[in-house]
Design brief:
By secondary structure, the protein is mostly helical. The chain folds into two domains: about 400 residues, Sodium/glucose cotransporter (Up-down Bundle), CATH 1.20.1730; about 90 residues, no CATH class. Helix content is about 75%, strand content about 0%. It has 20 helices and two strands. α6 packs antiparallel against α14.
């Protein structure tokens, strides 16, 4: 890292964002609100598929997934760490089932109803309070999630670029968010479809070039690395032997992967907004199936990198960092060439921004459509001014959230906040499942209490599960319990009516 000056990194970052600004200028010209929200429903499906890879992986995955490959249980621990070796692929295979459900069940519904925000379905099916609750949970979880990811990238910027130049952290954060705002405020999703494609390619290229650099350093070729990987302790993929108490158990991870895909993609405005930007349901489904296949190979690439990093550390005698998240940055920035250091920085930026830029656009879209009723307004000029103001407001909220994270100065607390935000997806799962699987109506005034109690009870059970359930830990499957509790709560406040007022899904399907 001593060979990389802050100015060299800054110049590289400036060139990278110069490219994004150029794309923004070309795609954002003459854009309107329809382009901002859904790219005029003219986005090329193949670009959407590639761009979604970066959004799904994010900067957290970029540095975390390679690190967990070589984790072992600490002395005294009775439970192995999650996702050791290649066990994460079990969850990825679960994703495939989840994406199949999204492509064949949820997306046809969204297209049939011509939705801009997917939470509009909840209003049509379960009423006003279910609609606002679902949209509100999305806004909360996505705000915390996007802030958490941007916080990670701001720390990297601060340590290696701005701190040596004497620039305070809040300026770093301001610059980080301002860059996103500048290239998304005009074109929105129309721009992001293209910029996320560039960022996905940059992220995957960083991984590939790092692998080749390690092969060169170990004086071997790609085939030699593959042989080392196959003979190592890190290559095990399927875990069946230790039952449901094992966090890496195949069935546990496969089920978790399917649920995570359905909830965090199919019920998430951020991901679905890209799918809804395609010309028609056929293109959107082609996008989803192509994305699913690419995602399998992308995750396999990240896990291979993780195993190779551990092998490299052992071969050259590098002391492993205290935190597994630091393994990839440590080797890329301190033990390989300056060229790879710059590639790593760009890959990390691309991974973080491909998730954060679409999140900012999705937050703006959801608030405008779900809370400001944009679909019912006609004055386009006023809508544009309001949308720009909302975009700025969410940028400010992200800025303040990141500053709060930094002031906490406690990684454990920040991680718990991020984990707590993920509990809000359980009520979304329950709401949509109830709407799709039953023909019942709900007593609307009780919807909010049900959707708040479900994650609270889930959290209490999750924290105490090892004590109450003979060592069993839910892990990612807590999402299923959370959704089930929401579903049962809605069932308890439901009543039978043969035709839902103002909306009959069966009738609309027949008419189509």
């Amino acid at each position: 890292m001593n060979q990389l000056s802050p100015l060299a990194i800054l110049a590289t970052i400036a060139a990278y964002f110069g490219l994004l600004m150029f794309i923004s200028y070309r795609t954002g010209r003459d854009s309107n609100n329809r382009d901002f929200f859904l790219a005029g429903r003219k986005a090329p499906w193949i670009l959407v598929a590639i761009g979604m890879i970066g959004t799904s992986l994010s900067g957290v995955t970029f540095i975390s997934i390679p690190g967990v490959v070589g984790l072992e249980a600490a002395p005294g621990d009775t439970v192995e760490p999650y996702n050791k070796a290649f066990s994460y692929m079990q969850m990825v295979f679960g994703y495939l089932l989840g994406y199949f459900v999204i492509a064949t069940v949820l997306m046809p519904l969204y297209y049939r109803l011509k939705l801009v925000s997917i939470y509009e379905y909840l209003e049509k099916r379960l009423g006003f309070f279910a609609y606002k609750t679902g949209a509100g949970f999305f806004l909360l979880s996505r705000t915390i999630g996007a802030a958490f990811r941007l916080y990670l990238i701001a720390i990297v910027f601060q340590k290696f670029v701005f701190e040596p130049l004497g620039i305070p952290f809040f300026i770093t954060v301001l610059a980080t968010i301002l860059l996103i705002w500048v290239y998304t405020f005009r074109g929105g999703i129309k721009t992001i479809v293209w910029t996320d494609t560039i960022q996905t390619v940059s992220m995957l290229l960083a991984v590939v070039l790092t692998i080749f650099a390690i092969a060169q350093s170990l004086e071997t070729n790609l085939g030699g690395l593959v042989e080392m990987l196959n003979q190592s302790e890190y290559s095990k993929m399927f875990f069946f032997e230790n039952g449901w108490n094992d966090p890496n158990n195949f069935f546990k991870q496969f089920l978790s992967g399917a649920l995570i895909a359905i909830v965090m993609s199919g019920l998430d405005q951020d991901i679905m907004q890209k799918n809804l930007s395609c010309k028609n349901i056929g293109d959107a489904q082609k996008n989803m199936f192509t994305f699913s296949i690419i995602l399998v190979f992308a995750n396999l690439l990240f896990l291979s990198l993780g195993a190779i990093l551990y092998i490299y550390s052992s071969q050259v005698g590098i002391e492993l960092p205290a935190k597994s998240d630091q393994l990839f940055p440590t080797i890329a920035l301190q033990h390989l060439s300056p060229y790879i250091g710059l590639i790593f920085i760009l890959g990390l930026i691309a991974a973080a921004y491909s998730s954060a830029d679409s999140a900012l656009t999705a937050l703006t879209t959801s608030f405008c459509v779900d809370f400001l009723d944009f679909q019912k307004r006609e004055d386009e000029e006023k809508k544009t001014k309001t949308r720009i103001f909302v975009h700025i407001a969410f940028s400010a909220i992200l800025f303040l959230t990141i500053i709060i994270f930094n002031s906490l100065s406690n990684d454990a607390v920040i991680s718990e906040l991020f984990k707590a935000a993920s509990y809000t997806y359980g009520p979304l799962l329950g709401l949509f499942a109830f709407g799709l699987l039953t023909r019942l109506k709900v007593r609307e005034k009780f919807v909010i209490p049900v959707c708040i109690l479900a994650p609270v009870i889930s959290y209490f059970i999750d924290v105490n599960s090892a004590r109450f359930l003979f060592g069993f830990q839910f892990g990612y499957t807590i999402l299923a319990l959370n959704g089930l509790l929401t579903f049962l709560g809605l069932l308890a406040i439901s009543y039978k009516e043969y035709e839902v007022e103002g909306f009959d899904l069966e009738k609309e399907t027949k008419e189509e």
